[in-house]
Amino acid sequence: MEIGLILEGGGNRGVYTAGVLDVLMQNQIYLPITYAVSAGACNAMSYLSKQEKRSYRIFTEYASDKRYSSWMLYLKTGSLFGFDFIFRELSDNLLPFDYDEFYGTSMRLKIFTTDCETAKPVVFTNKDMDHELRPLIATSSLPVIANIVEFQGHKLLDGCVAAPIPIDHAIRDGVTKNIIILTRDRTYSKPSKPDFPPFLVKWKYKKYPELVSAILQRYRIYQAERELCYQEQEKGNAVVIQPSSPIVMKRQCRDSSKMKEIYQMGVRDASERLTEIKRFITVNS
Q1: In the structure, what pLDDT confidence band is assigned to residue 251 with cuts at 50, 70 and 90?
Q2: Phi-psi region of 174 (alpha: psi -120 to 50; beta: other; left: phi over 0)
């Protein structure tokens, strides 16, 4: 039986996921298939390439770099994020990504993006990943503050709109046993108020009414998928790992000391659950 790994997004809260994944890698726990979205997908790349601490270093050493994210970039390019820097300069030179390990691995990755015209998820796998990492850019392109990405005939944005926690997709694939890493604590409830004013969303995406509706109703999908995670855990079908205390930080936090603290929480939470994780894998393999 295959055991899946489900990775939520969450911007720089993804440094928590980096901590959890580093513990898995330190213990040689590599699961056969990963379902990931947005920052979770970025973390998944280092996991599949078996590069422990790479994601940690990206978050703590470069997230405060103006080449990584800045309003000046937004004014110049229409995107708050410097994707050329993140997925080219960083991946090729500063913190080289192991493309050989990634392309050669037997592990499989499913990255979720959102189709702007249908507001439905579009899924890409390892085999779809080009050297420019376009699926990764697409799933990381947050509405309003990033540009639409065109790839394989689709117009794409952040996967968190259509599939914020893709546990239901894993189950539909027949992957019914999963380790799920969330970036919000158990007490969190997503507010119904969208991240951006509705008038701004409607104006910016007036050509894409389905997308507008999905963005404005995203909290419903998110809450439903979170609840499904807990239901699966109660049934014994999942292990849910999430922050043991609330993460209080902005999505694009630049404070490296704060991100180190959250990373250590991820390391600690995963280490405390390690026996449970290993037992779950042994029983269901």
Answers
A1: low
A2: left
Tokens coding 161: 């709109």
Residue 156: beta bridge partners?
A: 115, 149
For 48-87, give one letter per residue: b (16+ CB within 10 A) or e.
Answer: bbebbebbbebbbebbbbeebbbeebbeeeebbbbbebbb
**Does 252 have pLDDT greater than 80?**
no
At 189, give phi and psi (nearest 5°): -135, 120
Tokens of 89: 């300069």
Element spanning 21, H or E: helix 14-26
**Rg of the chain in Å (alpha carbons):** 18
The residue to which tokens 């499913």 are assigned: 110
Beta bridge partners of 212: none
- What 8-state DSSP symbol labels residue 106? S
E strand or H helix at 18, and its extent? helix 14-26
Contact 270, 25 (CB under 8 A): no
Q: Mind listing the pLDDT tens digit for each residue in 63-90?
A: 889 999 998 999 999 999 999 999 999 9
DSSP states along 228-244: HHHHHHHTTSEEEE--S
Per residue in 151-206, pLDDT (tens digit) is 999 999 999 999 999 999 999 999 999 999 999 999 999 888 888 889 999 999 99
For residue 59, give the nearest of 111, 112, 19 by alpha carbon. 19
CB 126 within 8 A of CB 102: yes
pLDDT, average across residues 107-127? 97
Closest C-alpha to 109, from 170, 23, 157, 20: 170
Q: How far is 188 from 148, CA to CA, in rounded Å?
A: 29
Sequence-distant (≥ 6) Cβ neighbours of residue 221 within 8 angstroms: 162, 163, 164, 214
Please report, as a single letter, which amino acid is at residue 123. V
